[in-house]
Design a protein that fits this description.
Layout: E1 6-15, E2 19-22, H1 23-26, H2 34-40, E3 45-48, H3 56-71, E4 80-84, H4 95-102, E5 109-113, H5 119-132, E6 139-146, E7 164-174, E8 179-187, E9 195-196, H6 208-212, E10 219-220, H7 222-243, E11 253-256, H8 261-271, H9 282-285, H10 292-300, E12 309-316, E13 320-327, H11 332-336
Parallel strand pairs: 4-5, 4-6, 11-12
Antiparallel strand pairs: 1-7, 2-3, 6-7, 8-13, 9-10, 12-13
Length: 340
């Protein structure tokens, strides 16, 4: 009798822009200081994708190229490419299809999904469902954003937060007790107004007025978002740990969305996971939206071991939030030694 298949991550790659926007440079653009930013959000610098006609597909293409080389995967083997992003190059075609074309992936169906900062955890649940059908053997899940494209650099409350990045994972079936073990995902429309990009869609099409009013950039009511993010990320992480009989001692790694260091600290405190088991890189990359969790996994890959208990948790616009419990699928040090 064939065992139930789980979706397991078998490789990871990421792409970061070269340009580093520091707090010192930001302070010449808007009324802020390094101390003000570090105290409130814990971000020192962020990467920015510069140049004309440089969409998120540029970073996604590089990440997928590295992923294919690193895992020894032929483009023809890929069954699906899913891109979790809020900043696609265009409304259509999808960024996923552009990335696939740039990497000569011709046998896959491709689509974008938009759940803001929760995109990677939602995407894992979707990929897990596809794998469980038995029809798909190799899926690439991309997650990332070019947040600089929708950031208002005259707004001192939001412009220090965001950076650009993309991560990509290869997902395959396994009959071992590895991969995605459990997930808990939520949405609540109460978050419609406190965190949104107002204009550019069908409700508020682009116009001179929407451009002049900076309605094509991120708006955030920081106090409301902070309140919900702290409670929801911690709650869903606790729920998934309890449901799977996991204590803080059982967790090898907690990977929270990198939105704000104070939100991360609150989540860590609620779960009881020791800080040395928490992946935190917000100081160097800022909030890359859907890209933060894969960026952490990529950076910590050499320290990940096959069978590690990993809890991922995120919160984003919508409001959307969720947590995924997975058992890591391979010894990361071996994979990093094969990096192209």
């Amino acid at each position: 009798m064939t065992r139930q298949q789980n979706a397991v991550i078998t490789g990871i790659a990421a792409s970061l822009p070269d340009y580093i926007l520091t707090n010192e440079e930001l302070s010449t653009m808007v009324d802020t200081t390094d101390e003000w930013i570090m105290t409130r959000v814990g971000i020192k610098e962020r990467r920015i994708l510069k140049g004309d006609e440089q969409g998120i597909s540029v970073l996604g293409t590089k990440a997928v190229a590295e992923l294919l080389a690193k895992t020894g995967t032929a483009p023809s083997e890929v069954d699906a490419v899913i891109f979790a992003t809020s900043t696609p190059d265009h409304f259509f075609p999808s960024a996923a299809s552009i990335v696939a074309e740039q990497n000569n992936i011709k046998n896959a169906f491709c689509f974008d999904m938009e759940v803001a900062c929760s995109g990677f955890v939602y995407g894992l649940e979707i990929c897990n469902g596809l794998i469980k059908t038995g029809k798909y053997k190799k899926i690439i899940l991309l997650a990332g954003d070019k947040m600089s494209a929708i950031t208002n650099y005259t707004d001192r409350t939001t412009c220090p937060l965001f950076g650009d990045a993309a991560g990509a994972v290869l997902i395959e079936p396994t009959e071992e007790e590895l991969g995605v073990i459990d997930a808990e995902l939520h949405s609540d429309g109460v978050g419609y107004k406190p965190l949104q990009l107002k204009a550019g869609g069908s409700k508020y099409p682009a116009s001179h007025e929407t451009v002049e009013n900076n309605e094509h950039t991120v708006y955030q009511d920081g106090k409301v978002v902070f309140k919900y993010a702290v409670s929801r990320m911690a709650e869903v992480s606790e729920n998934i740990m309890r449901r799977n009989n996991l204590t803080a001692d059982d967790i090898d790694w907690l990977v929270p969305h990198q939105a704000n260091l104070r939100i991360i600290d609150a989540t860590v405190e609620r779960t009881g996971v020791p800080r040395e088991k928490v992946m935190i890189n917000i100081e160097r990359y800022g909030n890359t939206s859907a890209g933060t969790i894969p960026l952490c996994l990529w950076e910590w890959e050499p320290r990940l071991r096959k069978g590690d208990n990993v809890i991922l948790t995120a919160f984003g616009a919508g409001f959307s939030w969720g947590s995924v419990y997975l058992k890591w699928g391979y010894d990361g040090i071996k994979a990093t030694e094969k990096k192209p």
